[in-house]
């Protein structure tokens, strides 16, 4: 069966007593090879049965996603993950510390894993995650197979943090949208590669570098220097590593100290900047400078500013510590030149 839905998506909220119905509908649609939008603590994911190559192809088609960019496979627990990936001591330590949660581990793929080559982009490694959202874990357990689930948006666009964002982005390309409210973290999972002796940060995200290093008891190895998909093989280990990614239609100007004519403003912290009162539109990530609040608000704020009609979005400086590293990473990708 095609991975595409033939009509408007079935939107099911978990808040009105329909939790069991939402889980059952999602399991049924995934089992039939269709696409389902699932909530996680990070962003909404566009899910397909990771063992069904045709269904996985539907993800790439729906997103317009480059096939060189591998997908994260989601599983209900560490035991399930170990049937698909080989976990060394470091990987197991990180999984036990942060799962369920916003951490993806890239590990060697088990030879017998049925995860499709299309989902791993033909690599001999696999990205695995146990999400914290209880509804989605119930879907994963009910299906009994891993679910490949990148963010539920068109490739390179702003990631969705509400079910309404998913419907606006993908519409009838999704069979079922499970609405479990806004995503509390708001930036994608941190991706760490545990391949051999090295433990490397491939993408900053919802678990900070400092938290990971505290569990490992040593610094992470240097992250890849480039994010261009043609630069080196190492950037193919994980999704979300292309330079022009998470991009709104408007141009993005980073570390702005003033608002220029015709710009919207993505603000951070309590202090205004020059020209703020003349901005086309203003969204504040966190008026108090709280990075956790800022991460949760990031994609929604970008989406609203992009719909304001401004030609450009000025972004106030964001500190790089903690979740600020992930926020700055997403903003740098949004600001990257587009070919």
Automatic annotation (TrEMBL):
Please give the chief subcellular localization of this protein: cytoplasm
Where do the annotations place L-threonine binding? 42, 74, 129, 149, 189
Report the residue ranges that make up the YrdC-like domain in this protein. Answer: 20-207
Alphabetic keyword roster:
ATP-binding, Cytoplasm, Nucleotide-binding, Nucleotidyltransferase, Transferase, tRNA processing
What reaction gets catalysed by this protein? L-threonine + hydrogencarbonate + ATP = L-threonylcarbamoyladenylate + diphosphate + H2O
Q: Which residues bind ATP?
A: 65, 69, 151, 159, 203, 246
EC code: 2.7.7.87
Gene Ontology MF terms: ATP binding; double-stranded RNA binding; L-threonylcarbamoyladenylate synthase; tRNA binding
Q: Name one GO cellular component term.
A: cytoplasm
Query: What NCBIfam families would the database entry show?
Result: L-threonylcarbamoyladenylate synthase (TIGR00057)
The UniProt family comment states: Belongs to the SUA5 family.
Could you tell me what this protein is called?
Threonylcarbamoyl-AMP synthase
What organism is listed for this UniProt entry?
Methyloraptor flagellatus
Q: What is the lineage of its organism?
A: Bacteria, Pseudomonadati, Pseudomonadota, Alphaproteobacteria, Hyphomicrobiales
């Amino acid at each position: 069966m095609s991975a595409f839905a033939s009509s408007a998506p079935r939107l099911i909220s978990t808040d009105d007593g329909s939790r069991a119905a939402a889980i059952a509908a999602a399991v049924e649609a995934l089992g039939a090879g269709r696409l389902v939008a699932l909530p996680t603590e990070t962003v909404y994911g566009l899910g397909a049965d990771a063992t069904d190559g045709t269904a996985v192809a539907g993800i790439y088609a729906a997103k317009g996603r480059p096939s060189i960019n591998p997908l994260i496979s989601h599983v209900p627990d560490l035991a399930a993950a170990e049937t698909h990936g080989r976990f060394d001591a470091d990987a197991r330590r990180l999984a036990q510390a942060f799962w369920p949660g916003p951490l993806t581990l890239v590990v060697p793929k088990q030879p017998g894993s049925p995860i499709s080559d299309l989902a791993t982009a033909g690599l001999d490694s696999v990205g695995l995650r146990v999400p914290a959202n209880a509804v989605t874990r119930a879907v994963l357990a009910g299906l009994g197979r891993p679910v490949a689930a990148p963010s539920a948006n068109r490739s390179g666009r702003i990631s969705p943090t509400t079910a309404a964002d998913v419907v606006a982005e993908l519409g009838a390309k999704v069979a079922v949208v499970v609405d479990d409210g806004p995503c509390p973290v708001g930036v994608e999972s941190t991706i760490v590669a545990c391949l051999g002796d090295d433990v490397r940060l491939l993408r900053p995200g919802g678990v900070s570098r400092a938290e990971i290093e505290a569990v490992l008891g040593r610094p992470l190895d240097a992250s890849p220097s480039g994010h261009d998909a043609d630069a080196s093989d190492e950037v193919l280990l994980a999704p979300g590593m292309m330079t022009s990614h998470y991009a709104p239609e408007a141009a993005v100007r980073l570390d702005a100290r003033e608002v220029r004519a015709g710009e919207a403003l993505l603000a951070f912290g309590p202090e205004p900047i020059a020209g703020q009162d003349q901005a086309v539109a203003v969204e504040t990530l966190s008026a108090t400078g709280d990075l956790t609040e800022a991460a949760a608000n990031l994609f929604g704020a970008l989406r609203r500013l992009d719909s304001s009609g401004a030609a450009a979005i000025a972004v106030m400086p964001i500190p790089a510590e903690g979740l600020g590293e992930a926020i700055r990473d997403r903003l740098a990708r949004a600001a990257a030149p587009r070919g």
